[in-house]
Design brief:
By secondary structure, the chain is an alpha/beta fold. It has nine helices and 14 strands. The longest helix has 15 residues.
């Protein structure tokens, strides 16, 4: 829905995600030097005027190395309420940190990268090639049949209390490890298979931009591709599936769509993965971590980004099912795949 400058409505789009959980995506950057917070906020205010779907100009919160985990979790977990800015910003006054977050109906991960570039006043680019218009939608009837007859497995919970709200976010510096989408997806799939006592039917949801990353804009233009991984996830087979991508269908605004809403978790993939590829940011950004929005009430999402030769892999999971220690443990197991 179109926004006017100054409005505070939260964007919505009908799909098969669980509407009870936050859809805020988060980008974390470490810089070569401390940022100028006032100038960054001014530039972002100008950007919200140019792109009305971003809502009213954001305000800045402080962040330090000591508080980055708590601020990041809050940005990811706090649902958008009437009166809230759609764009959340935290800037380190002395520490070289920037956090950006926004509802994924307003911008996608490449859109957040574009916002970071505008805030810092530097050109940014990503190596992602984009889908274009080649991806075909999966039939919703077929997807609904899968949900009923052979639902996607969930990643076995660990450490959660069952009643915590919000998400646990953990980032791991993987060093100079260039990661393609297929390679990372296969490694996650194998980790899920060894993590779960009964792996079940593992289906990856792969977040893919419809545009290439050469000149990202602060917009949302992405799709979720569904890729069943089989018993032995293999990067070559995933690459072959991505060559003929099938897009997860939106929940239709029909009687069938309304009947399917209780099946939101069964419609969700086992996990979501979003890779930002190799990023350039004018030499100012030294480390970058992206936290896509997880899908479903028990969802787990993984992100990866490489900048200045450093790859950072992230996990985001519901605190009701994973605590931070368990999430970090899963990432440690994932790193053993290389």
């Amino acid at each position: 829905m179109t926004k006017l400058v100054g409005t505070v409505d939260c964007p919505t789009r009908p799909n098969w995600r669980d509407s009870s959980v936050s859809r805020s995506i988060v980008l974390q950057a470490r810089l070569a030097f401390p940022a100028e917070a006032d100038k960054m906020i001014q530039r972002l205010a100008a950007t919200t005027a140019e792109y009305p779907q971003l809502g009213r100009p954001p305000e800045s919160e402080p962040v330090t190395e000591a508080t980055i985990g708590a601020v990041r979790d809050a940005f990811a977990s706090r649902p958008c309420q009437p009166g809230d800015p759609l764009l959340r910003v935290a800037i380190g006054e002395t520490d070289r940190l920037v956090l950006l977050a926004a509802n994924d109906a307003a911008v996608d991960e490449l859109g957040l990268l574009a916002l970071l570039g505008r805030a810092l006043d530097v050109p940014v680019a990503s190596s992602v090639t984009g889908l274009g218009d080649v991806a075909a939608p999966t039939s919703f009837a077929r997807r609904l049949c899968d949900a009923v007859l052979r639902p996607s497995a969930r990643i076995a919970p660990a450490g959660g209390t069952g009643d915590d709200d919000g998400d646990a976010l953990v980032a791991l510096r993987a060093g100079p490890l260039p990661l393609g989408t297929a390679t990372l997806t296969a490694a996650i799939g194998r980790t899920v298979a060894s993590w779960n006592a009964a792996p079940g039917r593992i289906v990856a949801g792969i977040g893919a931009s419809r545009r290439d990353g050469s000149r990202p804009e602060p917009e949302a233009a992405s799709a979720c591709l569904l890729v069943p991984l089989g018993a032995d996830p293999d990067a070559d087979r995933i690459d072959a599936a991505l060559a003929q991508p099938r897009v997860a269908p939106d929940l239709p605004a029909t009687a069938l769509g309304r009947l399917a809403r209780p099946l939101a978790d069964r419609l969700a993939p086992t996990f979501l993965v979003s890779t930002m590829g190799s990023v350039s940011a004018g030499g100012i950004v030294t480390e970058l971590a992206v936290f896509p929005a997880a899908v479903g009430s028990a969802g787990v999402a993984f992100g990866a980004a490489t900048v200045a030769g450093m790859t950072t892999i992230t996990i985001r999971a519901r605190r009701a099912h994973f605590d931070h220690l368990a999430a970090a443990g899963f990432l440690t197991d994932l790193m053993r795949q290389w």
